[in-house]
Design brief:
With 298 residues, the protein is α/β, with parallel strands linked by helices. The protein contains 13 helices and nine strands. The chain is 43% helix and 18% strand. Helix 8 crosses helix 9. The chain starts with 7 loop residues before the first helix and ends with a strand. The structure holds S-adenosylmethionine.
Amino acid sequence: MYHNAVLFKNIIDNLGIENGKIYVDATLGGGSITLGIANRLQTGTVIGFDVDINAIENFSNKGLQIINPFHFKLKDVDIYLINANFRKIASELTKIGINHVDGVVYDLGVSSFQIDNPNMGFSYKAESLLDMRMDKNLKVTAQDLLMVMYKNELEDMFKKYSDEPFAHTIALNIVKERKKKKIQSSLQLVEIVKSSIKNQTYLYRHVARVFQALRIAVNDELGALNDSLLQLPTLIAYGGRVEIVTFHSIEDRKVKSFFKENTDKFRSLYNNIIYPSDVEINENIRSRSAKLRIYEKI
Ligand SMILES: C[S@@+](CC[C@H](N)C(=O)[O-])C[C@H]1O[C@@H](n2cnc3c(N)ncnc32)[C@H](O)[C@@H]1O
């Protein structure tokens, strides 16, 4: 099921939305940000990117005027959908004649719809095949990585992408297990993590970290983010804004360091991170790790 994005109101209120301008929702998901921006405009353009074709296909149920499956209208506001990775943000926009935009929003990670979809293999709570590709055109799945990576590569992946303290033992046990049997399913991986940790009190924290690291690796999430950020200085018009919601420290560090290196091009709007309120965290536990950073092109 789709919900409003985490920190929805903060994102929409701080994007500096003005009629006639062009905004990009780099991570369409359930579409709340795209629609939230469109609803604030009388005229203008909103472009929603998603690498997962399901997000694009599900968008058509929103009661908008359908021009074609990738172009909708809400009164005089054009909404375009692009099924592509945001790492190609500038070239994909050029294809539809757009070279500069007035705001870009990234709501990183996976949607609740993707987590709940057993075909994606993101959830460790239900049995599913360990696929984890948001883009089904990618060739390598999580299963493939678990079967082909060397022990030290697995260990590095769990350390680098999720700061997992038991990375070494988990990697060792993956290698032991795959000699006996192909590692294919989510619950099989949960069992391996379980067997690698003495104190089971926080088992699911470790499981979540292992799943997160695999997901980041399969989708090259940090590489995609880096490639996309590098295009922003030329893509965003003066006074335009970038808003980025991250859900773990690894990607937040990347965002923070990029904008620190580019203080001649962007200024931080609040010099502080915006966190979800206690009310939002109570309503949606997934929001508890969210951080919103906002920058303006100077
Ligand atoms: C947290 S969800 C976004 C939720 C959305 N803001 C909403 O209102 O429902 C992240 C979405 O971004 C997509 N995504 C993740 N990485 C992407 C990338 N590199 N390029 C394009 N889409 C990406 C995922 O497929 C997912 O649908």
